[in-house]
Amino acid sequence: MTTPDKPPLLLTPGPLTTAEATRRAMLRDWGSRDRDFIALNARVRDGLLAVANGAPTHTTVPLQGSGTFIVEAALCTLVPHRGATGDKADAKLLILSNGAYGQRMARICEVAERSFAVIEAPEDTPIDPAAVQAALEAEPAISHVALVHCETTTGLLNPVSEIAAVVADAGRELILDSMSAFGALPVDVQAGRIGCVVASSNKCIEGPPGFGYAIVREDLLAAARGNAHSLSLDLEHQWRAMGGNGQWRFTPPTHVIAAFDAALAAHAAEGGQAGRHARYAENCETLVTAMREAGFATYLPDDLQAPIIVTFHAPADPAWDFAALYDRLLARGYAIYPGKLTRAETFRIGCIGQVTADDMTGVATAIAEELAAMGVKRFGRG
Ligand SMILES: *Cc1c(COP(=O)(O)O)cnc(C)c1O
Question: Is the minimum distance from the CB of 179 to ligand 1 under 6 angstroms?
């Protein structure tokens, strides 16, 4: 049950339920220029680099803000402005979109005036590597490609390795939004020849919200000097300044970074990416099985489902009421998530964070009981 000292389990795409040791790490203050804090910061950057197999070519550049800030910073640092001249005049980003986060990257490019094209697939369809290859052959001006790893809108897993190979073989640079996957699904920037991966503190590493990070090839960053139109979102400048004195350019979220350091240690203790993936996969399988047994239908087929967040069809019953169900579940200690689809009416349940398979069985049971109490008889899709 949710009480003031027992908050609900956050079955969402983040912020997530964190470990007590992670939250406890926020109970002390740090001076941002202290030697110990600088060392902690270096440890976090190195730890993230190791998760991505980034050494020795890549570096981790952290940035204050939510995940969208690091996506915007990466796009606007690596892709020159459309008014750029000289050898930067021809830059163009190809955005591969099958959900809200792909669309958000297009919006960033509109606002920041970056040249872009979009390959748009339906929300239940992975991006087709052959379509990417054809687009790159047809349009030499495309210099960079942006892809969402797990499209959190639905929970769909895009074929990252295949697309990364197509992009690298065509001599273009991939910017991977692995926000909701990094730390749980494999990302190997060496094997995948991936120029830049972005993620944030409050997803699969299970830290609190407050910063994002890009794991970028150093030669890409070095060549990006002066590209950013924004001072605070300039990753090249952030990297260069941090390389000089180990400090963030502007006030760092010290408590969040300290907590993230504890979360990274817990991630390593759980067996790193493979260990975390195993727990999330068990969570996902348990959830899907229990919900199907109760009569629910998943939006995605199992082979497209990432073990991150699951989209379910809303029951085709006149008594269905998401807001009412949400409140009832919250009172029982579970925070679920609304759907975000343009076509189908759905709701979502996250499998990530400090939650177990027992919690998944628990929420599925609670949903069935509360819907029955609300008079919902038909749990299947409309
Ligand atoms: C969470 C997320 C983001 C960033 O969202 P914020 O609300 O800005 O933290 C970006 N892309 C994906 C795929 C995400 O899941």
Answer: yes
